[in-house]
Amino acid sequence: MGPKKNPYLPEIVTVVRIIEETPTIKSLQVVFDDPERMKNFKFEPGQVGQLSVFGVGEATFVINSPPTRKEYLQFSVMKVGEVTSAIHELHEGDKLGLRAPLGNWFPYESMKGRNILFIGGGIGLAPLRTLILFMLDNRKDYGRITILYGARTPIDLCYKEDLKDWGSRDDVDLVLTVDNEYPGWDKKVGLVPNVLLEMAPKPDNTVAITCGPPIMIKYTLIALSKLGFKDEDIITTLERRMKCGIGLCGRCNIGSKYVCKDGPVFSLAQLKSLPQEEY
Amino acid sequence: MERIGFLKKEKIEEYLQSLSKKGELYVPVDVGRAVKFEKYLTGSSICLDRPPTLPPKSVIYPQSERLFKFKFKKDEGNVDLIEIEEVEDTKKRIIFGARPCDSAGFSVIDNVFIQTDTPDVYYERRRMNSFIAAKACDKPSAGCFCIAVGGGPFDDSGSDALITELEEGYLIEAKTEKGSLFLDWELIEPGDDHLEKKLKKKEESERLLSEYLGELKKIEPLDPKTESFNDENFWKRHLSKCISCGLCTYLCPTCYCFNITDEKKIFEGERIRSWDSCMFFHFTLEASGHNPRPDKFKRFRNRVGHKFMFYPEKYSQLIACCGCGRCIRFCPVSVDIREVVFELQKPRRV
Amino acid sequence: MVELKEKISEVFRDTNLVICWREGFDPIHATPHFVREESQIEDSIFNLFCVHNLCVYLPFLKEKAGILVKGCDSRTLIQFLQEGLIRREDVVIIGISCRGIIDVGKLMREVLYEAVTGVSIDGDSIKVKTVSREREFQLTSLLADKCKICRYPNPLIYDHLIGEPVESKVSWDMAYEDIREFEKKPLEDRLSFWTKEIGKCIRCYACRNACPLCICRDRCIAETRDPHFTSQSVELKEKFMFHFIHAVHLAGRCVECGECERACPVGIPVKMMKKKINLEMKELFDYETGINVDDKPPMYTFKAEEEKIKEHEL
Predict the structure, then answer these.
(1) Does the distance separating the beta carbons of A58 and B310 come in below 8 Å?
(2) B-proximal residues of A, 41-80, CB under 8 Å
(3) Fold of A115-237
């Protein structure tokens, strides 16, 4: 048996492009310094990576570019803490550490032939973006695709290029909403769960996938159940404070499941079988 | 090959000296109002007459350790480089005088850190290169309950050798291949003649413990459907007194949760892994300010759940508690985890 | 004990919560007892093992509570009131005149941590039965150190009082003799003493969390990265840093209840640092913590020219 791989050692990546999504969110496109690794890197939509700013620390982000587009790996980072602030200071050409891929992924195989309803809030669109782009790259495999996306204000909407594209496509229904009236905003106004109830999508043959701030997820899950979605057809991706990313350090568990390893993707049915905790 | 030896009491010093030449030897030492495992030095007086305050966990799983060093450099073209230097600790370590519960504690951690597709190489390396001799317990200490969670005062799980202190000396039984290390035939003599005395001691010790425990003799893993588990009032009733310090977790032979943090100087730095405690607010605090376990009740519930419900669920009904009793014995407010688990199971018993 | 339970009952009717003691996991351990139902009053006790300073819970309680305090503990309440950490109307104080409590850690060490199955007290002696034998001790030999130099056996603030007043003959100088003696030692000796003692620290923060005046708790700099004062490594300097910060944050605030030291699993005499600072407080500001509700802790006030700090006379 050869030497075991050290799961804590990051690989070095270089930032090739930085996109300012909102005043507090930046997307970083990175490539492995080792071109072979870049070529052979495999991951599934929904999996995450641990980005290291050496000397500051690591934090977990979903890889929000799909495996079908592999010139780079994209991560979106909201400036909230120590590591994310340091990431926001980075420039193109800067080096980072990356441990990826980690965690589970969206069960896209079992979603084939079904209608997909995406419900995102704020930076919570990141994991959904991976799957949306993946599905658009395999468009024929899936039924109707509906995207409900909200943010506090129009300025806080991420991936504006993608939104423009999705809004103009015939094979995607895009509904955008902001929390309050805003000058020049002509789309929906209201909190995501409320807009969802108003839209009243039919649960028939549909899988709902949601991600957003904890409070939005909480009420969206309630709304989906109210609309008749089965627990197995409601999928969410959770965020927790993570350190090791490999199910050892013990902090991101909900009951016996580790969000970093057994998640971050869970169905509501799975969540309901775990001890009650705030997500 | 002979597997049982006997060491005369007067030869213990010489024996330890000789052991210390085979690897880095750790023995329980009285450091003043506490007994902890320290590197053996000639003249160290080994303290076997009371349970060590701290388990030998830190010998194999140090409270803090460097995972790797990093250096910021530039290449000829002035392009930034980051160089990572991994730490590899392949030192041989010998622990003499652990307690059976302490060894059992390592077995609990082994399941998590080694029996996984992403083993913790730092722990694994040290664990594979360590030799553990546990000293069987003659009588229960305050808060002991090993037999209630499947262990015992003479249990050898996780140990390479088991030591029984008899009047004239120590009976040393090798329990694994590695255990032969403790059978130094230059200093010890065949021990079979003493086995009977040992068995008597074992019986007596088990009897004392079981009498001491009374109704707390057996703790089963918690059923995931345990009703009180999700009842906030249950936790309020039993844990209002908890002061939310990390003593119970840091003294625990089975607690393994950790933190990873970076420390930096100008051109270099290190990533360290250090023990963390699920009893701390910061443990689950997210950068956004959201905290899924914001109060001590949720945190204690997770601690009990982890040991008695979640871990057994994952590892064929094994309880992640070795019953050493340290969390009870030393808790500043005498929180009794046995009592909490017992109360949780009460409705089922009735 | 009848009197105790009667008083608790009386207060409970008013507050719906009384924080007192009940018997712990063995006969030499008491444990804090939160009485929230009438039926729980029956379990309440007061004896030589009621070592805890129950005031530690008060600043975080969001409800009115009755509380039992010994003389030493009562100073905590005064300090809380000085600092505005509790409101007087939110606590109903049952004071207990106290003849001293037992150093349970010491007792456990004396019996080599053997499981204790029974204890009986007869006059000045205490019989302790363990699983293997019975031993008899003089009570005075097991008394907590703080009790041997106690100057406040009677509560300084209370609504109800239990027990006959106890007289103390301990003077200020007697109480701080240990510190003065220690300070006479050469610097190298003191350094090696602290190096050994602090070296034992496992950063479990029991000392911090058992301290009623350590109110930063979840925001303690020992764990935060912002500010990043300490790293998580277990090097000696990090441990010193934490203990120094702990001690200095208690300057003019520590009431010497000794909970920090009692809570420490590895027996670091952390109270000494705090006593040293209290000695300085007395000498510099003629101030003693937790005595008068109307006092202002010196570190909460500012005088352009302190009487005993002549910084302008350089």
Answers:
(1) no
(2) 52-59, 80
(3) Rossmann fold (3.40.50)
% residues pLDDT > 90 (chain B): 86
CATH number attached to the domain at A11-102: 2.40.30.10
Q: Rounded to an integer, what distance in angstroms lies between the CA atom of residue A189 and that of residue B39?
A: 67
Put simply, whether A168 touches B (Cβ < 8 Å) is no
pLDDT at C301: 86
3-state secondary structure of B163: strand
CA C67/CA C61 separation, integer angstroms: 12
C203 interfaces chain B, CB cutoff of 8 Å? yes
- Report CB contact under 8 Å: A278, B256: no
Burial B185-217 (b: 16+ CB within 10 A, else e): eebbeebeebeeebeebbeebbebbeebbeebe
Instruction: For chain A, give every residue range classified as CATH 2.40.30.10.
Output: 11-102
H helix runs in chain A, sequence order: 35-40, 82-88, 125-137, 160-168, 192-199, 214-226, 268-272
Maximum separation of any 2 CA atoms in chain A, in Å = 65
User: Is the predicted pLDDT of residue C135 greater than 60, yes or no?
Assistant: yes
pLDDT tens digits, B57-95: 999 999 999 999 999 988 887 778 889 999 888 899 999
Chains adjacent to A (≥3 CB pairs closer than 8 angstroms): B, C
Q: What is the mean pLDDT of residues A234-248?
A: 92
Distance CA C53, CA C255 (A): 11
ipTM over 0.90: yes
pLDDT beneath 50: ranges in chain B? 1, 349-350
- C60-76 confidence digits (pLDDT tens): 998 999 999 999 999 99
Q: Which residue has the tokens 């229904």?
A: A173
Query: Which residues on neighbouring strands pair with residue A29, listed in sequence order?
Result: A17, A74
Q: Which of A1, A248, A252, A272 to mutate to test the interface with B (most CBs of B within 10 A)?
A: A248
Strand partners, A150: A121, A177
Name every residue whose Cβ is closer than 8 Å to that of residue B302 and which is 6 or more positions away in sequence.
A253, B278, B293
- Which burial class, exposed, middle or buried, applies to A144 when counting CB atoms under 10 A from its CB (0-12, 13-18, 19+)? middle
Q: Which pLDDT belongs to residue C222?
A: 87
- Measured between beta carbons, the chain B residues lying within 8 angstroms of C259 are 332
Question: To the nearest whole angstrom, how far is the Cα of B66 from the nearest Cα of chain C?
Answer: 9
Which chains touch C (3+ CB pairs under 8 A)? A, B
**What's the mean per-residue pLDDT of chain B?**
94
B44 close to B27: Cβ distance less than 8 angstroms? yes
Establish, for the pair of chains B and C, how many residue pairs have beta carbons separated by less than 8 Å.
Answer: 151
CA atoms within 13 A on the CB side of B101: 30
